[in-house]
# Entry
Amino acid sequence: MKHLIAVLLTAFPLTSFAQLAQANQIPGEVKVTQILKATKEWDGSPLPPYPAKNPEITILRYEIPPGIRLPMHKHPVINAGVILQGQLTVTAKDGKQLILNEGDSIVELVDKWHYGANTGSVPVKLIMFYVGEVGVPLVIKGNQ
# Structure
């Protein structure tokens, strides 16, 4: 839960609260840790612009059993996440791979075919944040 709160504080425009907490101007035990700040997808491509109208934020928690490979898919929206447990290997259609472990973050590929696989021995637990637009799907499954 601590990781989720930190992600929420850094991923959404609560800049004034985060700045106050980082400057130690809030008494108590508030601590803010930046998990991710990016302008590019994990393969180095620049992120597309945010939707111009009807933005929609979705947060999903996934649990992927060991040995499971997700189907080939792509996301028409920007999304990023944090691995809470396990090891996830993400493979792009062109063969590029990214191996993620507990505590790692990812900015997913947008409109590029890829899949994820739990390559570890425990379930992968991850939280994904999607910045989309009302009526636009979060994922499109492929026939590959």
In short: The longest strand covers residues 55-64. The chain has two domains: 1-35, 39-135. Strands lie at 55-64, 73-74, 78-85, 87-92, 97-101, 105-107, 114-118, 124-133, 140-141. DSSP finds two helices and nine strands in the chain.
